[in-house]
Amino acid sequence: MGDIENNGLSNWGRWGSEDQQGSLNLLTPEIVKKAAHLVKQGKVYSLSMPLETEGPLWPGRHKLWKVTMHKTTSGPRAHSSDDTVIMHSHSGTHMDAICHFWYDDQLYNGFKASENVTSAGVLRNAIENVPAIVGRGVLLDIATWMGVEHLKIGQAITADDLDQCASAQNIQIQLGDIVLVRTGWMRVFSQDRELFNSGEPGVNETVLPWLKSHDIVGIGADNHAVEVFDKIPPDRLPVHECAIRDLGIYLLENFNLEALAADKVHEFLLVIAPLHLTSAAGSPINPIAIA
Amino acid sequence: MGDIENNGLSNWGRWGSEDQQGSLNLLTPEIVKKAAHLVKQGKVYSLSMPLETEGPLWPGRHKLWKVTMHKTTSGPRAHSSDDTVIMHSHSGTHMDAICHFWYDDQLYNGFKASENVTSAGVLRNAIENVPAIVGRGVLLDIATWMGVEHLKIGQAITADDLDQCASAQNIQIQLGDIVLVRTGWMRVFSQDRELFNSGEPGVNETVLPWLKSHDIVGIGADNHAVEVFDKIPPDRLPVHECAIRDLGIYLLENFNLEALAADKVHEFLLVIAPLHLTSAAGSPINPIAIA
Amino acid sequence: MGDIENNGLSNWGRWGSEDQQGSLNLLTPEIVKKAAHLVKQGKVYSLSMPLETEGPLWPGRHKLWKVTMHKTTSGPRAHSSDDTVIMHSHSGTHMDAICHFWYDDQLYNGFKASENVTSAGVLRNAIENVPAIVGRGVLLDIATWMGVEHLKIGQAITADDLDQCASAQNIQIQLGDIVLVRTGWMRVFSQDRELFNSGEPGVNETVLPWLKSHDIVGIGADNHAVEVFDKIPPDRLPVHECAIRDLGIYLLENFNLEALAADKVHEFLLVIAPLHLTSAAGSPINPIAIA
Amino acid sequence: MGDIENNGLSNWGRWGSEDQQGSLNLLTPEIVKKAAHLVKQGKVYSLSMPLETEGPLWPGRHKLWKVTMHKTTSGPRAHSSDDTVIMHSHSGTHMDAICHFWYDDQLYNGFKASENVTSAGVLRNAIENVPAIVGRGVLLDIATWMGVEHLKIGQAITADDLDQCASAQNIQIQLGDIVLVRTGWMRVFSQDRELFNSGEPGVNETVLPWLKSHDIVGIGADNHAVEVFDKIPPDRLPVHECAIRDLGIYLLENFNLEALAADKVHEFLLVIAPLHLTSAAGSPINPIAIA
Predict the structure, then answer these.
(1) Any chain D CB within 8 A of the CB of A71?
(2) Residue A102's CB: how many other CB atoms inside 10 A?
(3) Which end of chain D is more exposed for a tag (fewer CB within 10 A), N or C?
(4) Cα C61 off chain centre by
(5) D115 contact B CB<8A
């Protein structure tokens, strides 16, 4: 594989040669049912940052634009308002479809990028193949475990860190989990926008075999891109390359994990419902944790 | 009230003079917990229609526009794709914020429209006040109960119909329910687009006291606007006027209820997670039913 | 007229009760022909600033957004590129339609704003009524005449200043002229963006009778809004109120007048060709001076 | 050159290895001055079709989208309106930048497409290199010369046809001319939209040496793409390939030539002022003919 080292990690063919859902196949009804039974208090958390012009956004993408059409008349005394929104599918809190990233002209499961990625949309592995991600969400609160307000730019989180943090939280990682890694970095978003957009702490390549051996459905974080780098744009995004393209795993980005962490809620029913956008490479989301 | 007759129905002031959430206040942790326990099989349903240029959309609104930025280079061998989406906040399957509709210059809870509805957004009752709607979803499958493929354009569903259908389905309507009314009209969407966009069957004004007395959180349907009319634009939208503006109840539109109906799933955990769009009058959604 | 003082200035009814072109009626073929004969050297000047995300734009308007669809395939070896542009009709160098500004619910020539200004567009006096403005352009280079690099924020230019400057330049103002006032303020755009967006030098209300008595077709400047104010948003825009709404005169904004000034070109054939945008309140333009 | 046959036609290097303006270099002050002297009557023609959602647009491109922000308040009694426009740079009546079309990874003058055409814009030969096209416009009214209302779909116009038509009109083609070819096809636009979007009459490859030998600056027509084809998308666009990429000549599309033809105006001062859009592959235009 030359300079891209995926350690032989792959889920290609595992769910058939035509599969376009990747790790979503792991979410059986049994897992969903067990996750629903995690709801003990009936407390609902929205894990979304505000979706707005000045919300978190990968540098280089255009800012969200919204105009409100106000005071449309309806009948003799009534009026309505509506908005036009212009945004990237990867705006604010969002998830990547497994067509979002690739190398060597092949998407997840071997589909050719040159045949399937077009100006009009992506023909395979697009977000429309994800009706929803519903399962057990696990918060690994690395910042709290490390005793810091937030990790530093460029600070790597390893598979061993994830294991130790889970153990300290008394959490056993299970097949089909959606793992949310809290670095504290979203606090930097409001404190120092320039720093937030210069790089980030996050998981590194050691996490890739861990994702595969635990059969994780998705991994998210409170930063732009889940993985670590010390400048933007980074030279490479090795976790994107392997997790999305080789393993068909969903990356979940710019999450707000502050309330879950404050309440020490470490496992919960997680419902992620991407917009059912035809042929899109991702979607903004409002992920809902129910504890 | 002159020509707008709301029968004295109002929730203004009920949750305080500054309340911007309306019926969402009804969803207590107890209700959420009970709804989660409705999950028996672990089966997940997306109730969204495809969100695309040719998806369901109120005539007069512009069609959704999407362009894909393909093959952005990242590192020596990797590439990524992303999309730009331009859409109304009321595109496809969507929910109305309780600032969406008003009369006599007053929004829900008495806020002045002339002060709060601006080209830059709506300052009160906007969708950002809805972190999520999580509770018991109830399907009232009127089309099946009436023994028709779909109701006819302009055919009204009354409060009495809702009661009889619930009774036939062995469902007791409860405080805090989110009620989804199936008219079968979404079948017309694929069969006859012109007819679909000419009017619709739906609930009429008799349902307003029913919504209030049952303390319903939201009411949805498989059509443009939940309520009945025989031409587009209709002369008035009386259910919008009273449900949104007087009662602070959420309207849920263009739902795909076919799979729930086929499986005869009449109660379920329902999770609706609008995009956390600042100052917007609504949001496209991908509602998730879990049974 | 209460707080809005238009000194009885009005062109309403002058060109008929249905007129939607205002001062454009002044441009007779005779004037066009004479203007064409001003071309002596055959030198062409574009008076447009770059139309781009970081170009001049009234604070509060969203920045222009452009994405390029690149490398669309056409045939065995050929490709093409195209762009999607999202912008305000009043972006960068632009002209105001005479429906852009009004007071007391009446547009130029007495049309009711409440009936003609809608979310879907403006039904009267929109930019589509301006096929082109072709006539004699006159540069009044106030900054050079005053011997300053640029006038100061909040510094007013009076009718008397215009007359003295014209006289110093040996220019006689004529019926049908399009007058471009150079304040030097566009130099501030590249030097100090924050100052540029805080207010501007420009003409004040004394110019309104001057515009009327000379029968000027349009007045432009190298700033956001032609007229003077010392903060943004200003409390009022009296020149907009009277020139656009009472006189039906065209305002021409964010012009680049540097090259004309450097060459001391004070009269020229001026061609302004707004996009033929149906029902729009203005258009970005690339004004062409030919000397 | 394999299947792309350009007969050795090329202007690469002619105006220097860094030139990004192509045939625009031909327009000397002398030519501009002579063109201005063609103005005899002072009559002004806008050659633009309406720029609107249902205006002429290459099938496959998204339709123009416009929303009007109405009734923004300014001061105690005044209001303003503005619009947001979303459009392709190749919307309605428009011109192609000479970066719009290429083959074998090389743009006009040999710049590499793979290095210069990006999602963020085109770095060479973009429309910003065209301050304006000002020169002699020549109408070759082929439909009138052939005695037909309009040519037929797929009907080719040859170099010989252009010569004969010019001769019949007593026009001598000169270096630096901008040639507008009237096929009558724009009449089909209002009569039969489906036919208009199925193909078109236009010039064929025989015109390429003619453009080169006459040193034409630009060639336009009253159709989508100047050149002939009998289906959309066509298999190839050979005139685009050679005129734009090999010769650096400007293509001018979807012109409204009806008024010029009705008045038998065959030569005129032509002013084309593209929006000064940074790094764009073209621009909508409102071309102005002055006779």
Answers:
(1) yes
(2) 28
(3) N
(4) 17
(5) no
